[in-house]
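ASSEMBLY PREDICTION REQUEST
Request ID: AP-0331
Submitted by: J.K., bench scientist
Number of chains: two
Total residues: 224
Priority: normal
Notes: Please return the full assembly, not individual chains.
Input sequences:
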Amino acid sequence: QKEVEQNSGPLSVPEGAIASLNCTYSDRGSQSFFWYRQYSGKSPELIMSIYSNGDKEDGRFTAQLNKASQYVSLLIRDSQPSDSATYLCAVKYSSASKIIFGSGTRLSIRP
Amino acid sequence: DAGVTQSPTHLIKTRGQQVTLRCSPKSGHDTVSWYQQALGQGPQFIFQYYEEEERQRGNFPDRFSGHQYPNYSSELNVNALLLGDSALYLCASSHDRANSPLHFGNGTRLTVT
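STATUS: Completed
Returned structure:
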């Protein structure tokens, strides 16, 4: 059973619109949640981290966490062509535990 | 402030050979994790090193081994290479805290022929 699940996409969104990326996780005790962006051929880079239920905003990005539903999402407002990438959801159970990644959602912003 | 550095960038090996990949963590980080990423997949956890000990291990065979040095740098060794070991190998460093995210190096692209 996969521990972190994401829709593989591709998700196609028009430029300027809101892109919504979703992730579910299986371990109810998970404490830390991260979103990474990965351009083709490059390594993942951290976009957002979230630890408490609710929303966390950083510029055009908003992370949302619902621990009761074991669900975390990423919203990208005013989507730009440069946002076209694969977005990886990652989950950590505790301080000494590994970080588990989903398989990623490929996002394409069309002009 | 140097980030995570990995070497080499690319590597081509023959089936059955052995390979060593190297990683220097971001300044101030004490934990190093290694991941394997096949094309179109998310990073798969290989193992994590903290205080020079392997603290956690993913579902990888014993052919995959590692080491962490007192300066926190780390190595990933793969013996008896298989064609299926061809992938991007990512090193990531972090603090030993619950909320500490991973910071990735640029990766090593390994091709096994």
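REVIEWER COMMENTS: The first strand of chain A starts at residue 4 and ends at 6.
SIGN-OFF: pending second reviewer
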